[in-house]
Amino acid sequence: MNAPNAKTSKSKRWKPHEIQLYSMAWLGVLFLLVFSYLPMFGILLAFKDGNRVLDIADAIFNADFAGFANFREFLTDQKFRDVLWNTVGLNVLMLAINFPAPILFALLINEVRNKAFKKGVQTVTNFPHFISWIIFGGIVISLTDMTTGVVNPLLNAFGLSSAENPADLRLAQYFWAQMIILSLIKGVGWGSIVYLAAIAGISPDMYEAARIDGANRFTVALKITLPMIAPTVTVFLLLNISRILNNSFEQFYSLQKSTNLTRSEVLATYLYFTGFGRRKYSYAAAMGLFDSLASSILLVISNFISKRIAGKGLF
User: Fold this and answer.
1) Co-location of 11 and 110 in the same domain
2) Does 26 share its domain with 68?
3) What is the average pLDDT across 291-297?
4) Is 250 within the bounds of a domain?
5) Domain span at residue 16?
6) Which letter does DSSP use for residue 246 in this model?
7) Residues 137, 124, 107, 237: is their CA dihedral positive or negative?
8) Looking at the structure, do residues 142 and 188 belong to the same domain, yes or no?
9) Is there a domain that residue 42 lies in?
10) What is the spatial distance between Cα 105 and Cα 176, in angstroms, rounded to a whole number?
């Protein structure tokens, strides 16, 4: 009696659609193994003297042990402090401005009753997300060109610039504002999708009861919608806080020039140019490890504070 059951169980286990599912799952595991776990061996390089070596793989295991010398070097480097200030300062501003924007946009879209107009707005605002930062940056550079771009004439029309003395948007003092505006244009529509999904999960009975009680749209959004999506907001807020030392390399590299380098150099680009440009592999590995540890600590601290104050956290 047991043999047929075992045979039946084995045949069920290896049905064609299940083989496809297992294959897809193993591909995901393989991706994480190759791109997330195997590179962790590079952490050893942060504690070795592997700068300017020819064989990085050999240096990871056989280079002279340097202890915390690489960490002391970049922590006492004024250049690193300037880069850290750019990274933290810009990310804090983007957290204060860019993080609430998709939430507000989702609340506004949710109030639109015309379905055709609603879908049209969502399509237009989601489209920039699918353009790579390299292409998007090239478009921005063309639009903000002092002689051929269309941005300066618009600034002239609003009295923010003049034809005789046009604003040079390539200068460092404009970079942070430019980056915040571009991040909003590129990310507000896509970022609102998850909040719209959370809003869609709210029971219509709650809205109906509020309308019967005479609540207006603003009150409904403030008293019902926002509290109901608060767990989703909390999760993404904690994740954004943990990424306060991280930036998209493509985002900054596409708009970085010698004229704005004092404000546009962030950890992502500094790590790249230090590691690959100057071949200071151990130095860059130490900075990367510092970045990862700081992000983990920020996540744990912000999660602890959130659970203490709001009773909700990521874990």
Assistant:
1) no
2) no
3) 91
4) yes
5) 1-36
6) -
7) negative
8) yes
9) no
10) 22
The answer to whether residues 207 and 303 belong to one domain is yes
- With a pLDDT cut of 70, the percent of the chain lying above it is 95
- Taking the complete model, does pTM exceed 0.90, yes or no? no
CB 270 within 8 A of CB 286: no
**Whether residues 280 and 139 fall in one domain:** yes
Say yes or no to pLDDT of 16 above 80. no
Q: In this structure, what token pair is assigned to residue 153?
A: 């004439």
Please, is 15 exposed, middle or buried when counting C-beta atoms within 10 Å of its C-beta (0-12, 13-18, 19+)?
exposed
Q: Distance between CA 96 and CA 116 in Å, rounded?
A: 32
Q: Give CA–CA dist 76/285, Å, rounded.
A: 16
- Backbone CA torsion sign across 172, 238, 133, 282: positive
Question: Is 314 part of any domain?
Answer: no
Model confidence pLDDT, tens digit, residues 97-134: 999 999 999 999 988 889 899 999 999 999 999 999 99
Total domains in the chain come to 2
Give the residue among 200, 203, 207 at the shortest CA–CA distance from 232: 200
Torsion of CA 217, 223, 224, 228, to 10 degrees: 140
- For residue 215, what pLDDT is reported? 85
